[in-house]
User: Fold Drug resistance transporter, EmrB/QacA subfamily from Micromonospora avicenniae.
Amino acid sequence: MTQPAQAAVRPNVRVVLFGLMIAMMLAMLDNMIVSTALPRIVGEFGGLDHFTWVVTAYVLGTTVSTPIWGKLGDLYGRKSVFLTSVAIFLVGSALCGMSGSGFLGGPGDGMVQLIAFRAVQGLGAGGLMVGVMAIIGDLVPPRERGRYQGMIAGIMAIAMVAGPLVGGFITDHLSWRWAFYVNLPLGGIALALLITTMHLPKYRTEHRIDWLGAALLSVGITAIVLVTTWGGNEYAWFSGQILGLAALALVALVAFGFVERRAPEPILPLGLFANRNFALISVIGFLLGFAMFGAMNFLPLYQQTVQGASATNSGLLLLPLMFGMLVVSLAIGRAITRTGRYRAYPIIGGVVMTAGMGLLTMLDVGTSKVESSLFMIVLGVGMGFLMQTSMLIAQNSVAQKDLGATSGAATFFRSIGGSFGISLFGAIFANRLAGSAAGGAFSGGGESGGRMDLEQLKELPAQARELVLAGLADAISHVFWWAVLFTVAVPVLAWFIKEIPLRTANEQPAQATGAETEPASVA
Assistant:
């Protein structure tokens, strides 16, 4: 190909990458926007004791589907599989927005419908991130890939800052339904760009999808999440339902281990866990997801109820956490590049994150917005030390040929940590709330039907309102007490990480047997 022809291709590559970034932004923004809108959704539908399932269903769907999307892309081609995942995400978004409306039934069914459609949305989202990373690998040579990884970090930062603001603005000035409908025009633009401009290598391979392993992993994870969600809430901890789910989870995960040892292409290669650094980072990633998702979901609830902030202002009030995380993450990335040293950062991050969680246990009805902002900055700084470093350590500790499996597994453990954290924190919150003065107002019974109407809360007599707000603040701070018990393990685990010198170049991967490829190009 002549040099002018090469120059003609480059602008279209940028168009394709722009479409990919929009698609990735959808997945990253969604939970941030929805978390801010959740108190208003609960106010309309009721079901405060189940509100965390709106997020759990999405995270669970994303987590269990991510490795499957990756295998489907290898087998059937990344373009068609990726576009299918975007389409499923958009269909799920539209259905979420219509939950409880006249199109799909009465308001009484709204929360159940929303949870179900969030699971559909999560199934589509599972293919977005893994698809973007794989497609960039097809289009961009390794020497140039670093700057696009920087773009991905920038997109993540924008999503973390913009999500709560967009969610708050939509909730205050439009309707919570637009927290889902906003995905449709953005997704439509991404689909149009990618369909018309993207052409990827065509593979003919003999890959086999580990369907049995995927099914067993999905069953095991779902059963565990149900145990943490329903235990002590819907059912007693030692009831037949909870013990049965625990037994199902144990059997499914043990069977998954046997299947993965024999599968030609396992969903989760168990041999990676023989690597000490990978095993430690997997657990740290689980705890990081656990803490991060818990904070994101309960802080807006505290701000909108106890502190009386509007949905938009609650998004603004989360900015200190995002700012601390973003600034420290960027600074640590540059420091690691300059020095090549990284072992101290997850240790420091674990200590600071635990301190931040400890400070958040002090939240009560008298905590000012300045105080809560300072608490969130500390938590964000701790997360910033860990977010980028944990993935770097995992990737650098394994052979280049295992890089894809390692990245997928690290993402999986962070996601499943978020899923477990949301469900367990939700159960702890609901149980604590039920025993407080706020329990009678929000946990069902009476004409309220378990609704949380913020306007009605403002109309309560001063003494009654103070009791309800105190109960809510106590339940939320109790959640952070439990979070401390998990985050305190992070610096202890990080202490045992072995610092392996950072590779300065990637190994050249061997050509896949039986695969025929065509050069990557764009129209």
About this structure: The first helix runs from residue 3 to 45.
